[in-house]
Amino acid sequence: MPRVGNGTPAACALHNRVFFPILSGTESRQMTQAMITMRREFESEMRVAMTLNRFTAISALFASLWLALPASAQVLPEAQIGVRIPLAKKPTTRPMGVAYSPLHQRYFVADGGLGPVPGSMDITTSRSEVHVFDASGKYLQSALPGLDNRAIYFNPNTKLIETITYNVSSSAGFTPGTGIYSLEINDKGELTENTRDIISFNPAFGDAATMPSYDAKTQRYYAKQERSNRVWVVDPKQREKVSEIVLDLDAAGARFDDISDHFIAYTGIAGEELAVLDVDHKAVLVFDLNGKLVGKSALPPTLKLLSQNHYNGVGYSNGMVFVYAEREGEFGTYLGFKVSDQVAP
Which of 12, 57, 94, 107 has its CA at a distance of 20 to 30 angstroms from the CA of residue 188? Predict the structure, then answer.
């Protein structure tokens, strides 16, 4: 027996028992198995911990991205009045549309319905006026540009108020003073009687009485076709429509003769680009550019709409749908309704 420490057999036996225990074959296999089990449990716990850490990190990442995203647009179930524009005098013809100039902080209400008479030497211009109001709806002035207006809008590209006349498509035959014109505002912020021709008639607009709306980003127009659910997309540089959008009126529980016959609004809100007045159900129907219904905003039940609202007295500007309430006030009132919780960028 080898001698360790003080060399005595007792010391050697103690050393073997305490520091280098001698195991039998069965005990050795059991210990080995126990160590393998412990290692597997440790590795399993580590994998779980790593998975939880990755999940926590990914969750945090998605949470930060979600918070960074802008709120999605939503059509308001009930339209909210944003402004009232009571007319200060009797319209010269029929009130058509409304435009807002952020540069001048003015609303422009265009009359229409009385154009120049073809072949007449006496009536060569329209007697329809354009009326100007401040941002609160207070009347300021009227002017006679001499155009039979159908749609009026502010063009942010040209920084001008522009108007589209009746028969812009020449569908009803050629008449003088038809097309798209810009209106002149002088240095005092007053509307003058001067106009400037932008484009002449273009058959791509379709129906003679259409009241198109304008997309300044694509520089295209959306022209509602009468007695239908069809909207033509128009590039003014082309003589034929670019495409056609079919509004899903069935999803709204409406028919083509329930809604505005000539007007469609372009809102500029992603996913809620098109809006149309449902006269018979007192609501504004909102669609995307594929014609899919995305929402319905109810107008006040006390609002009195007449049959004329199918054909005129409607517009879109400053983030609001404008509806002419003929029986509100002495000469009628334009009501601006917000129908979405978002605004165009």
Answer: 94
- Could you identify the residue written with the tokens 């007295």? 313
CA distances from 263 to 44, 225, 290, 313 (A): 67, 8, 17, 10
Question: DSSP assignment of 110-121, as one string?
Answer: EEES--PPTT-S
Percent of all residues in the chain with a pLDDT value above 70, rounded to a whole number = 77
Q: What is the mean pLDDT of the chain?
A: 86
β-bridge mates for residue 23, sequence order: none
pLDDT tens for 187-246 read: 999 999 999 999 999 999 999 999 999 999 999 999 999 999 999 999 999 999 999 999
Please report, for the chain, the start and end positions of each structural domain, with discontinuous segments joined by +.
Answer: 1-67, 76-340
- Cα angle for residues 81, 86, 87 (degrees, 5° grid): 145
Instruction: From 102, 339, 335, select the one nearest 216 (Cα to Cα).
Output: 102
Q: Identify the helix (H) or strand (E) that includes residue 298.
A: strand 293-298
**Burial letters for 157-192: b for 16+ Cβ neighbours within 10 Å, e otherwise?**
eeebbbbbbbbbbbeeeebebbbbbbbbbeeeeebe
Instruction: With beta carbons less than 8 A apart as the criterion, state whether 232 and 222 touch.
Output: yes
C-beta of residue 342 within 8 angstroms of C-beta of residue 269: yes
* Alpha-carbon torsion, ordered 34, 38, 40, 44, to 10 deg: 150
Pick from 305, 287, 307: nearest CA to 296: 287
- Torsion angle, CA of 169/110/113/230, rounded to 10 degrees? 40
Which overall architecture, per CATH, does domain 76-340 show? 6 Propeller (2.120)
HEC string of 153-210?
Answer: EEECCCCEEEEEECCCCCCCCCCCCCCEEEEEECCCCCEEEEEEEEECCCHHHCCCCC
